[in-house]
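Support request, please re-run this one:
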Amino acid sequence: MVDIHECAVVLVQEPDHAAAAANPDPSSISAHAWRPFEDAAAAVVGRIQPSVSSEDRRAAVVHYVQRLIRCSVGCEVTSYSLLFPHAPIL
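Re-run finished. Output below.
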């Protein structure tokens, strides 16, 4: 029989210099280097953030589904959202 401690491997994490270079301290990055990433983030937020027209389309879809269910099934459906304030749960 073999003692489990004789075969145990001790893992020691050595500093990974490549990982440190890939994840620099954010305060060490110049404002000039941040600019492309800030622009990309603003573009993403601009595309996913609700706009007046997208809210109007969403409201129209909710109204249509409510009418469809009311007319075909005879049930009243109200929109309600607990987790996502801009996404109604029917």
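DSSP finds four helices and no strands in the chain. Residues 19 and 25 are 12 Å apart (CA to CA).
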